[in-house]
Amino acid sequence: MARPIYLDYNGTTPHAPEVIDAMLPYLHNEFGNPSSSHAYGLDPKQAIVEARAQVAGILGCSSSEILFTSGGTESNNHALKSIAGAGYAKGNHIITTVIEHPAILKVCGFMEDHGFAITLLPVDTDGLVKPSDVAAAIRPDTIMISIMHANNEVGTLQPIAEIAELARQHHIMMHTDAAQSVGKIPTLVDDLNVDLLSVAGHKVYAPKGIGALYIRDGIYAESFCHGAGQENGRRAGTENVLEIVGLGKACEIAAVELEMRGGGMQEMRDRLEEGVAAALTDIRFNGHREHRLPNTSSVSFKGLEANRILAEISSDVAASAGAACHADQVEISHVLTAMQVPEEWAKGTLRFSTGRFTTKDEIDRALEVIVEAVKRLRK
Ligand SMILES: Cc1ncc(COP(=O)(O)O)c(C=O)c1O
Questions:
Q1: Is the pLDDT of residue 8 over 80?
Q2: Each residue of 193-203: pLDDT tens digit?
Q3: What per-residue confidence (pLDDT) applies to 223?
Q4: Where in the chain is CATH 3.90.1150.10?
């Protein structure tokens, strides 16, 4: 039986065939420990060097500034707990936003329980943070500003460079969670003006369980995991060579394809949005119209429940919900809540996200299924 059309690339991506090919030797012959000085260690050690340069390539930084981690969550934890945490003597205040991924919000909650002060900035109805709100939140004891580059639910892009400039003026470290933007839009660290940036491998056609943290040279980073001296003493444990190679390859091809890939994803996303808008009434799109990821569409179907629509289309289309309804209770996502999307709209919100492999035929078929399902449910 054919599997549903995959429109959940923000959830995760399939492995790129080039990534699989690059990883194969490390599943077979090249099993050596990169720390071994004998022959078996040589290739894996060199492969890590290459992968580090490939990841550095898409971020426009040097290899020494890349730390391999287990994914976006760990990179965010590391940035906040080990790097901001190390600045405790200078101050204990961190600024972030209400629309971050739980991999930031929950870490901040934990740090608050351990003596840090956290400011959660609001967003406007497009999901944008105002730089003037950031400026107003800065205090003498602020040690870090952490604001996501692209929102995973609605795709809104934040004015990171402008906010980073404020951080720089006040000698505050600037982190951005770029799990959703790397590989979709340019993410050069110097253009973004950030000190720290999180990458998640499985959003960029590499496997799950691998990621990276960019740490600008000169920033003191405490070891996140103590043990032997891997990753320059910043993250102990024998390296995940297989997936590091996969992440390197994924970043290499994403950097080359960036413009073409962005254009393709956007064409498919726009085709979907135009089709939905032409066929249905009482729909709205969430997220900033212009400052938005090219692949993400958050659509609210007024008066419906997201899970019911998903159930109705599940054998043909894979997407995700922006709200969950249990019995007579509705749990609306923290992002839609922060954007003040009214409940009658928010509870019927789906996220569609296109990717490298999305085709016109898939979009046209998905459109038919979605439109029919919504009309049926509204009857
Ligand atoms: C914005 C954002 N940050 C962090 C993460 C977590 O990344 P990982 O799944 O690699 O831990 C995700 C994953 O959905 C994300 O969308």
A1: yes
A2: 999 999 999 99
A3: 87
A4: 5-11+258-378
Mark out the alpha helices in the chain (DSSP H runs): 17-27, 39-59, 72-77, 102-113, 131-137, 160-169, 189-192, 241-279, 306-313, 334-338, 343-346, 360-378
What amino acid occupies position 47?
A
Question: Considering only CA atoms, which residue is closest to atom 15 of ligand 1?
Answer: 179
330 forms beta bridges with 325
CA 235 – ligand 1 centroid, Å:
19
Residue 53 has a pLDDT of 98
Range 17-255: architecture per CATH = 3-Layer(aba) Sandwich (3.40)
Which of 151, 180, 182 should be mutated for ligand 1, with most atoms under 8 A from CB? 180
* Residues near 117 by beta carbon (within 8 Å), at least 6 away in sequence: 92, 93, 94, 141
pLDDT at residue 326, rounded to an integer: 66
Q: Is the pLDDT of residue 210 over 80?
A: yes
**170-194: average pLDDT:** 97
Q: Which atom of ligand 1 is nearest to the CA of 209?
A: 10
Query: Among candidates 26, 5, 28, 82, which has minimal Cα distance to 210?
Result: 26
Q: Which of 152, 205, 240, 247 to mutate to test the pocket of ligand 1 (most atoms within 8 A of CB)?
A: 152
- The yes-or-no verdict on residue 324 having pLDDT over 90 is no
Per-residue pLDDT, 87: 73
Strand partners, 286: 298
- Does 61 qualify as catalytic in the annotation? no
pLDDT at 91 over 90: yes
pLDDT tens string 220-242? 888 889 999 999 999 999 999 99
How many A from CA of 363 to the centre of ligand 1?
25
**C-alpha to C-alpha distances, 249 to 40, 45, 47, 204, nearest whole angstrom:** 21, 16, 10, 10
Give the separation between CA 374 and CA 274, rounded to whole angstroms. Answer: 16
Ligand 1 — pocket residues by CB below 6 A?
Answer: 71-73, 101, 103, 148, 152, 177, 179-180, 200, 202, 211
Ligand 1 pocket test: pick from 101, 202, 205, 210 the residue with the most ligand atoms within 8 Å of its Cβ. Answer: 101
Domain spanning 5-11+258-378: CATH superfamily:
Aspartate Aminotransferase, domain 1 (3.90.1150.10)
Lookup: tokens for 9: 């690339």
